[in-house]
Amino acid sequence: MHLVVVLGLCLSCLLLLSLWKQRSRKGKLPPGPTPLPIIGNILQLDVKDISKSFINLSKVYGPVFTLYLGLEPTVVLHGYKAVKEALIDLGEEFSGRGSFPLAERANKGHGILFSNGKRWKEIRRFSLMTLRNFGMGKRSIEDRVQQEACCLVEELRKTSASPCNPTFILGCAPCNVICSVIFHNRFDYTDQNVLNLLELFNENVNILSSPWAQVCNNFPAVIDYIPGRHKKLLKNVADIKSYLLEKIKEHQESLDINNPRDFIDCFLIKMEQEKYNQYSEFTVENLVTTAFDLFAAGTETTSTTLRYGLLLLLKHPEVTAKVHEEIDRVIGRDRSPCMQDKSHMPYTDAVVHEIQRYINLVPNNLPHAVTCDIKFRNYLIPKGTTILTSLTSVLHDDKEFPNPEVFDPGHFLDKSGNFKKSDYFMAFSAGKRMCAGEGLARMELFLFLTTILQKFTLKSVVDPKDIDTTPVANGFTSVPPSYQLHFIPL
């Protein structure tokens, strides 16, 4: 009986605390639906498709509204104007990394993606400089991508036009490019190490995009005390980091400070230079996590986009035929595609952009946070408040992209058939936290897709009309359905 009384009192205290925290902020934050004690607004959201819930809520509360995901408030920005105002016009003030409990458990604030403050600024600055030194955005990295595109074609030829699931083949190509920068080596497409790593990355993306992950991120206590798929995610991260740590140890044993081979070498040299600085951010923990961040971001996002892109090309053979025609006219069948070709291939360029726009890979972006108390559209947002920016609302804006739910390369073409840029194209986010590897990703998508279509005809195992391009999960990322296809050599 006493236990029941104690539990009742504890629950009452939690309810009162929840109500007090919510009311104490009332009048400062943007409007939003009334939250329930403790659980907030979670019951008013479709955890299978958060973006759809945001669209409905924006119709009621406008482009800036507040949700309580558990006890803490989250401000949601919906629509191009609100997102641009925050991420670009007020980029510094909105440059914090917001609450993402699963990532916080996995990375513990280290690395580049989920760090904040001085650590984030120093690691990001160093990473961008080092990546540029190793050819990011230069001709040397284009050579690597072209070489990998040739390896990809050879691997696809080995399928002998039989039906195949392209997931891991397409994963190996961008993986090898980023590995050449981080490790100074690439893997064979049948190497069990790389296949295991890709399997772990793929599984983690599926877990993060599941409804269960949304629950974990909204109620962090679940992560520590309740079993579930999130435990597998954390184990996968630990396994990948263990592999990276072994690579780092190998680099330490063979390091030549006068001749750095790759990103790991450069980081180790920086660690040595700052070994007497007790406040240095250049530690083994930050190296492991930064390498993990670059590895994951440089592999999974590009491979998922390629996989989704081929599915859309199977669904729309008329689009694929026009790309084939442009490749034949501009490049031919013999020489390798290069980035100079892009300016002469407006339709192919439009197709690549439309794939990214249509699939809306990261619907609600990674969470941001405000770095100071800020007045935003007459609302006062306290320092540290998590900000969610709906990239769906920008990429699927029906005024900028008529019929946004339709896959149409015409969204990026003018009346004369020339490529048309759009400020609404925020597939890589925007502002201070935008994707550090945007240039490489754009290069890979163009060169890999054009090289594949230069050498193969894509053939579906089902009637194109029966292909379903609806994502099977739409949480952290939009995950395409599994499928098979034939790569028919030309």
Biggest beta sheet summary: 5 strands, mixed
Please give the CATH architecture: Orthogonal Bundle
**Number of individual domains:** 1
CA gyration radius, whole angstroms = 24 Å
Name given to the CATH homologous superfamily: Cytochrome P450
Amount of helix: 40-55%
Tell me what portion of residues adopts beta-strand conformation: 5-15%
Name of the CATH class: Mainly Alpha
Q: Largest sheet, order of strands side by side?
A: 1-2-7-4-3
Structural class of the secondary elements? alpha+beta
Describe the structure in your own words:
The chain is an alpha+beta fold. It has a single domain (29-464, 474-489), classed as Cytochrome P450 (Cytochrome p450), CATH 1.10.630.10. The chain is 52% helix and 9% strand. It is built from 17 helices and eleven strands. Helix 6 (139-157) runs parallel beside helix 17, helix 7 packs across helix 8 (192-208) and helix 13 (284-315) packs parallel to helix 17. The longest helix has 32 residues, at 284-315. The relative contact order is 0.16.
